[in-house]
Specification:
This protein is mainly α. It has one domain (34-137). It is 86% helix and 0% strand. The protein contains seven helices and no strands. It is globular.
Length: 140
């Protein structure tokens, strides 16, 4: 009966359990979950910091635009790069870039040297390419 039920309802937790039976997928899914939590925490923190620095809705909009601007315009180039280069190496570089940017922001905030311009520059420079890395999406 369980076999018939599985054919009638192919989705559900059964597929998740089957996927998690593979060690490599468990490592990938666990690392991706931790990474996404960190990315969302940083996303909220950057918006909050932009508001704290400026108390301006305009700057919040500029920070949001800075988040999605590279995705729209750089994704085709990044996709072509991902097709021609080692995907694992690209993913490593983008993860390191995101870590360096987060560490730099932490130091700037801790020392009180952060300005909205530095926040915007750091936001455009490293984090966005790391977040939407086509090499990670094209993983096989």
């Amino acid at each position: 009966m369980a076999f018939v039920r599985d054919r009638l309802f192919p989705g559900g937790l059964g597929n998740v359990v089957l996927a998690l039976a593979h060690r490599n997928y468990r490592i990938y899914a666990g690392g991706n979950a931790v990474s996404l939590v960190g990315i969302w925490m940083q996303r909220v923190a950057v918006g909050w910091l932009a508001w704290t620095l400026t108390h301006s809705g305009t700057w919040l909009g500029v920070m949001s635009m800075a988040e999605f601007f590279p995705v729209v315009f750089l994704s085709p180039l990044a996709g072509a790069l991902a097709d021609r280069r080692d995907r694992v190496g690209i993913i490593r570089v983008t993860q390191i870039a995101g870590s360096v940017e987060a560490s730099l922001l932490a130091v700037l905030v801790y020392t009180g040297a952060i300005t909205i311009e530095l926040l915007l520059g750091a936001d455009i420079a490293a984090r966005r390419l790391q977040r939407h890395c086509p090499a990670a999406r094209a993983w096989r």
